Amino acid sequence: MTSAAGFIIFRQLVGRPIQYLLLQTSYGEHHWTPPKGHLDAGESPLQAAERETKEEAGLTRNDFECYEKFEEKTTYNVKGKPKDVYYYLARLRNPEQSISLSDEHQALSWSSLQEACDLMDITSMFDRICASNVVIASQQRDEPDFTQEQKYHILQQLYSTNPATFIYRFGSLLTDDDLQRYFDPNADYIRQIATPQRHKQRANRRYTYMQQLVANGSYFSDEAMKERSPLLYEQMIGRYEINDTNKQLVTRTANGPLADFYMEHLEAINHQERVEEEFQKEERARREEDSESEEDEDDNECSNAQRELYRKEFLAIQKEKFLNGEDSNIDYASIDNNENLDDMKIRERDEEEGYFDDEDSYTYGDDER
Fold this sequence. Notes:
It is a single chain. The protein is an alpha+beta fold. It folds into three domains: about 1-115, Alpha-Beta Complex (Nucleoside Triphosphate Pyrophosphohydrolase); about 120-195, no CATH class; about 205-325, no CATH class. Helix content is about 55%, strand content about 15%. It has helices spanning about 45-55, 115-120, 125-130, 150-160, 165-170, 175-180, 190-195, 195-215, 220-230, 230-235, 245-255, 260-290, 295-325, 330-335, 345-355; strands at about 1-10, 20-25, 30-35, 35-40, 65-80, 80-90, 105-110. A hairpin with a 7-residue loop joins strand 1 (about 1-10) and strand 2.
């Protein structure tokens, strides 16, 4: 396992919010990070953080106040191997002090907390553009294809210098979250791209993906929906289930590990107790209202129909939540930007409607259709 360390350095200018120092690498994907680097042999994380900050930003320990009690450790994989990174908090003593970049970095930014988060996350937007078939920049016929590093550099330069052109060229690949986080929401170019056509396309793709999930059968199964919305499930379905359902639950749990068996068995028992209690209440109410067996049979038939109605209503609610983007375990960005989910007939119809929305109203005869 490799290790690295660095400082999260902030400054406070008079009359301005706190700003954090980020450096943009001059290699690879040109990502933004605080000053940090690998631990040398025999170094502690704090010693490595001090050395790397001096090498990358030209700041020594005398230039900032270190809060050593603040230590944040994060672990992630690099080329399939785990890497530990230690961060310490530090305040720049002179907020006007200049930063000296090393050859490893090409730009710096003093950013608010939200701006810093946006800068570090923006590479995901560039990744999506590079992974598509869109032309990043024009090339001569005999020129070799751009490398990933060159594509990132072109995108970064265009995004920084001319966001309107960036939107014009790559807007169809951006998510609503991209538009809100990385661009000025009041700019004219944002209002132009946020069209009803874009929302139609997103809705159509989510609907197509949902239909695939329905066909698969697992995501919208009773068990999966119960896990996502347990309270609503109990109110609309669970309270009306009869003993056969609970027997199936107990049988299924016997196939899992011992711990799972005990937990799920207890859950099944609790569920069965609630069902039996509700069933007894219904029985008492039925005896008080009707004493004839034929009427009892009619009540049972009505109850079964009501159960099915509740089940359909519960499923409709779950589908609506999915389409509205409310399922936290779904990557909506990958769905909204997946052209393979486009239904060509729907797409052609929507494009035609969008075209004629700008035209004068005209009634077509049968010969023109």
